[in-house]
Structures are given as C-alpha cells and as structure tokens.
Design brief:
Largest sheet: 6 strands, antiparallel, barrel
Number of domains: 3
Helix content: 55-70%
Shape: rod-shaped
Order of helices and strands: HHEEHEEEEEE
Distance between the termini: 103 Å
Structural class: alpha+beta
C-alpha cells in the first residue's frame, strides 16, 4: 500500500506539471492569436477606408471625363461655326473688293470725262451762240455730275467705313451702293452651324433628339439637346431605335447645345450613336 502511494504521488506531480505547461502553452497561443486578430482587424479597417477613397476618386474621375467630353463637343461645334462664319466673311470681303475696284474704275472714268469737258469748254469759249449753248448744256451735265457726287458723298458720310487695301493701295469707299450690296450679301449669307440646330419635333412624351456619343467605360451618353431646348438636370429620356424602346437615361449635366446622361451598366451594349431619345413627361 505504501509502495503504491509512493508511485502515485510522483505521477500526480508529473501530471500537474504537464497540465501547467499545457495551460501556459495554450495561453501563449491565445495571446498570440488575439494580437494577430487585432492587427488584422486594423488592416481590414484601413483597407475599407482606402476602398472608400478609391471609389470616391473613381466617381470624381467619371464626372470629370463626362465634363471633358461635353467641352470637347462644344469646342468642335464652335470651331465649325467659326469656320462657316469665316468662309462667309471671306466671300463677302472678296465681293466688296471687286465692287470697290469697279467703283475706282467708274470714278477714274468720271474724272477723265470731267477733265475732257473742261478742256472742251476752254476750247469753245470763244465761239458764238451755238458754242455758248453747247457750253450751257455741258455746264448742266457738269452740275448733274457734281450733284451726283455730292449725293454719293452725303450717303457715304452717313455710313462709317474702314479703309480697304486693294492692289497694295488704300482706297476709301465713296459710294453707298457697295455698302448696301455688302449688307445684302451678309443678309443672304448662310447662317453659322451653331444657329442651324436641327428642328426638334415634340413627340408624345416630349422633345426628341439623338445620341451623339456613347461612353461605355463610364456609362454615360452625350445627346444633342441642351439648355436651349429647356433640358434640365434630372430629366429622363426614352432611348429607342426603329420605333422600339431600348432603355432609359437620366440627365446629369447640361450645356447650351448638348447634355450628358447616365444609364444602368447593363445597357452599355444596347445604346448606339444616332439612337433616338424622347423626353419623358414631367
């Protein structure tokens, strides 16, 4: 009996020591796992914050891209308009120069005629009544020419014209017909493209337009309707092709001649350029 007790007691001590060692190991592993969990939780929170910042930057980039697309289209429209105006002005300028050349020739001819009349008057002053009658007639013609010149000069005085360079010489216009012709040319000249916006025919739901650009990367389209067509941010449009409705878009940014509208990502492959857009009833 004493022998059994002597054997059991050391065994118990060994078991107690092993239990304590095991407990210490488990506690150490628990503390280590807890520290790693805390560290991983902090990293997860940091990643979530970075993800939110990235999403915000992506949205801002989308807005900037849409705005740049609109500005580019507006710049192209203005360039086309200015090109048309420049061509019209060049044509009007060339016609004015041609008319001014003709006026120069006419004035030179009148001046030559006047000098010839003066020479003839000096030659026939010594003649009799017949010559005096001829002088009277010539004086009347001279007076008529002077009245015409005065009338033309009076007309030019009421119209302020700049100097025009013709054949390396500066010529000052002295007659109003050229100005009137130039004004008529400008009046009949084709209007700039910006003024020739296509007619929007109201449909059952509202005004109609076309899709100009489809941006599949940022999920937006550019349409040819703008503030001049009374389009506002938040307006919604049907998109259709050949009379069949494809989907909806919502206006996000409005410029004078065009607007940007967003659409659902699943519609990016559906929309195409020149698709018809019709405003929904407000």
């Amino acid at each position: 009996m004493q022998r059994k007790g002597a054997i059991i007691f050391p065994v118990l001590i060994i078991l107690i020591v092993l239990s304590l060692a095991l407990a210490s190991g488990i506690y150490y592993l628990y503390r280590n796992e807890y520290s790693q969990n805390v560290k991983l939780q902090g990293q997860l929170t940091d990643l979530e914050n970075r993800q939110k910042q990235t999403v915000g930057q992506l949205e801002e980039s989308k807005k900037k891209a849409a705005d740049l697309e609109l500005q580019l289209q507006e710049a192209k429209t203005r360039i086309d308009s200015l090109s048309t105006e420049l061509t019209s002005e060049k044509m009007a300028h060339a016609d004015t120069i041609s008319q001014l050349d003709q006026l120069r020739q006419d004035l030179a001819s009148q001046k030559t005629q006047r000098e010839d009349l003066e020479n003839r008057l000096s030659q026939v002053q010594e003649d009799g009544k017949q010559i005096k009658e001829q002088i009277r007639i010539m004086q009347q013609q001279k007076q008529a020419l002077e009245d015409k010149i005065k009338s033309l000069e009076a007309g030019v005085a009421n119209i302020e014209l700049g100097k025009v360079v013709v054949n390396s010489e500066v010529v000052q216009p002295q007659a109003a017909p050229a100005v009137a012709t130039k004004a008529a040319e400008k009046k009949n000249a084709p209007e700039p493209k910006a003024a020739k916006q296509e007619q929007r025919v109201p449909a059952a739901g509202g005004i109609e337009g076309k899709i100009m650009i489809v941006n599949k990367e940022f999920n937006f389209v550019v349409i040819n309707l703008g503030s001049k067509d009374k389009v506002n941010v938040g307006d919604q449009f049907f998109v259709s092709r050949a009379g069949k409705t494809i989907g909806d878009i919502k206006i996000e940014k409005v410029h004078e001649f065009m607007s940007a509208a967003g659409f659902a990502p699943e519609l990016k492959e559906q929309f195409k350029e020149n698709d018809t857009v019709t405003q929904k009833s407000r």
